[in-house]
Design brief:
Blueprint lengths: L2 H9 L2 E10 L5 E5 L5 E5 L7 H14 L6 E5 L5 E7 L1
Parallel strand pairs: 1-3
Antiparallel strand pairs: 1-5, 2-3, 4-5
């Protein structure tokens, strides 16, 4: 599902996109890409002490095949809707 994001990253030095998180799920997984382009991700981590944000960064880095330091939450650290920056 994230193939378009991988291709976009391959053609650009950085990409930005929005992610809506659902915390406390049974497992971390991509749920859907909504019609407005927002990615909906379920996270198994609880929203305590940054655990959910860390789980989101780990998941996106793995799926986009980049290192964790290349994935940043630029907006929405305490919100369900986050803006993500990925660099290559």
């Amino acid at each position: 599902m994230l193939e378009d994001f991988k291709k976009n990253l391959a053609n650009n030095k950085e990409i930005y996109f929005k992610v809506k998180v659902i915390v406390g799920a049974s497992k971390t997984e991509l749920k859907t890409i909504m019609s407005d382009g927002v990615i909906k991700v379920a996270l198994a981590a609880a929203p305590e002490k940054g655990a959910a944000n860390k789980a989101l960064i780990n998941y996106l880095a793995k799926e986009l095949e980049v290192r964790k330091y290349q994935v940043q939450i630029t907006s929405g650290l305490t919100d369900k809707l986050k803006v993500i920056k990925v660099t290559r």
